[in-house]
Amino acid sequence: MRQVRKKVVSAALAPVLVVGGIAAVVATAATVTSVTLTAGADVNLSGRGHGHGRGMGQWGALGYAKRGWPAEKILRHYYGGTTAGKADKPEVSVILTKQSSVNVRADAGLRVGGQTVAPGQAVRLAGTTATITSGCNGAVVASVPLGASPFVDPINPAPSRPATELLKLCSNGAVYRGGLGLVDGKVVNRLHVDDYVKGVIPRESLPRWADEGGAEALKAQAVAARTYALAALAKGKKIDDTMNSQVYGGVSGEDPRTNIAADATAGQILLALSLIHI
Questions:
Q1: How far apart are CA 88 and CA 164, in angstroms?
Q2: What would the pLDDT profile of 180-190 be if each residue is shown by its tens digit?
Q3: How far apart are CA 41 and CA 164, in angstroms?
Q4: For the packed helices 215-234 and 58-66, what is the interaxial angle rounded to 10 degrees?
């Protein structure tokens, strides 16, 4: 009788994490073992693909979307015991691990320390002071005390603002929605959660899925990403732009196809009906 050797990948799943009425799933790292199987024997495989193993299975979501499942059904499949809800505290703060300083400009101007900064001028943060310059690293125009808010903000902090209002770092040209500040020596992006997920979806899923019958999977990813971020913050955790939280690339990480998914699900999150175990 022919014998077949297969590798079995297994991952122990932790209970659903319910924080402030929001549900998220956490999984531990996978382990790989080898077993010998007899031809015709049954085998159960349990595991995951690439990534940190928390939350929705993106490739699985794509498969369900291609079967015609709407985003709501995909989310119910992966997050049992939840119902659709709306974010009531939509602001998030994200630590930008690849940025080390705040020196920014915006074509439409900025706001810092309660003052409006004219188009063409830039703002550099250091300590408790904002220095306004004529362009990036230009002549000093004024110094402004930051007060209680160590952030440079766009003219209009609302989500989905035009490119002229977005903040651009002078050091490397990286563009971010919302405000940028220095908190405990770290660069932090403070923005609306709907803007945040625009920089997450393309890094956690593939934008081309929208062209392959997977638009509903991208919508499900938008809701899951929004829920995960707000759940973490409600728990008192800090989130950053890496796999430790969710990979986030700012505007440079966005794609028009995944932005459509974010806008189509604006404000939508998952609320827990009860604590269940997987």
A1: 28
A2: 999 999 999 99
A3: 62
A4: 140
pLDDT in tens, 203-240: 999 999 999 999 999 999 999 999 999 999 999 999 99
**CA neighbours closer than 13 Å in the CB half-sphere of residue 154:** 26
Q: Give Cα separations from 107 to 70, 99, 175, 188, 249 (angstroms).
A: 39, 21, 12, 21, 21
Q: What is the mean pLDDT of residues 238-261?
A: 96
DSSP assignment of 74-89: HHHHHSTTEEEEE-SS
How is 180-232 classified by DSSP, letter by letter?
EEEETTEEEEEEEHHHHHHTTHHHHS-GGGGGTT-HHHHHHHHHHHHHHHHHH
H-type alpha helices, the chain: 58-66, 71-78, 193-198, 201-204, 215-234, 256-264
- Which element (helix H / strand E) includes 23? strand 22-24
